[in-house]
Amino acid sequence: MPELPEVETVRRGLAHFLIGYRFKSAEGLHPRVVKPASLQPLSAVVGAHIKGINRRGKFLWFELDRELALVAHLGMSGQFLVARKDRPAPGHVRAHFELSKGFKKQELLFRDQRTFGWLSVEQLTDGIPQSARHIALDPFDAAFDRSAVIARMKARKAAIKSVILNQEIMSGVGNIYADESLWRAKIHPEIPACELSVKKIGSLVDAAVQVMAEAVEVGGTSFDAMYINVNGESGFFETSLAAYGQEGEPCPRCGRGIRRIAFGNRSSHYCPKCQVRT
């Protein structure tokens, strides 16, 4: 699933290509592409100008010159693509948009092979769409309160990996960057959060910020064609992964083989020497 770095990369791409454009047409091409709670069909955005592209955690939305916003969640494999004539037409297109700015035209596609992503037309409350109101601030939000987030984590009895994945405590972190952050902070994924010191949890939050910032700079992590930027390019952070997906590979810090364990319905990767569960 695209995590904060991938969604931020998409946000930046959409902003680069589409701010100032007006929706000329908007068409859903799959029965599940529009979220059932959507206030109106996608055609409600026709005629609206794009003022900005915003994000909270893994949620994206197009800020328009009207009270409504076009909201998107990429799910497992959702992609926005600005159509290019020099590339083959992509498959699995679930929604199609035509846009214009003066004499310039753009064609925007939303494709989603696994169809877990969705689009929605929503009203904003204090600048946030209804779908994202329950989502906590992510570490790159100017209003992010590091101390408050650490305190909330410290109060939890659940395994620390479950806590850092909780989007209502701190948004944006998924399985990839959870494993990488825990590795950098030298924390075993199964240690209960309440057993960690405030300082140690702080080091984990800081590691998450650092690793996600580094990933954003190289366009996120692309293991396959399930995630690409709006211009069709892949991200390159996969080459920097120390733990996630590295089972059996030597730990870059100590040389011990990285292990994989079952963690809920996911896998968790860690170094048994650097990340000792005490």
Key words describing this protein structure:
multifunctional enzyme, 22% helix, 2 domains, N-terminal domain of MutM-like DNA repair proteins, Helicase, Ruva Protein, domain 3, four-stranded antiparallel beta sheet, 278 residues, 5 helices, five-stranded antiparallel beta sheet
Second-tier CATH architecture of the largest domain: Alpha-Beta Barrel
Query: Spans of 5+ residues with little confidence (pLDDT < 50)?
Result: 222-227
Q: Mean pLDDT score, rounded?
A: 91
Q: Provide the spatial order of strands within the biggest beta sheet.
A: 2-3-4-8-9
Overall domain count: 2
The geometry reads as elongated
Distance between the termini: 31 Å
What radius of gyration results from the CA coordinates? 20 Å
- Please give the CATH class of the largest domain: Alpha Beta
Instruction: Figure out the total of helices.
Output: 5
